[in-house]
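TL;DR need structure tokens for one chain.
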Amino acid sequence: MLLYIVVFVLTFFIMEFMAWFTHKYVMHGFLWNLHADHHKKDHDSWFERNDAFFIFYAVVSIGFFLLWQNNILEIGLAIGLGIFAYGLAYFLVHDIFIHQRFKLFRNANNRYAKAVRRAHKMHHKHIGKEKGECFGMLVVPFKYFKK
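>> reply
TL;DR here they are.
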């Protein structure tokens, strides 16, 4: 049981690196055409082309669930749940808390919440794909914790 908990937690933390890497080199790289509307809205829809990225990680997570279910990878459930948990955290922090796509968590004002908002605001000050900063989500550089 301890192994599965460790794998789940490790997967969750590895996903922060994966999100940073994907955001910096894929979203701000060769798939900028899907991510650009997140930096500069060019449509009237509530949905963004950028929302398609969640599908990739959902498929990967489901793939690990299937590997576990079919007795191919015993720790597949822990990995799939770790990816899912990170995706849920990302959705809550990025889409709901920061971008207010649903009007929840509006009054969160602790040091961490303020740092997350500052870092993401710095990321969005660049509307082009170059010269970006703060590509992660949950791990915030210390400089954004300053008052």
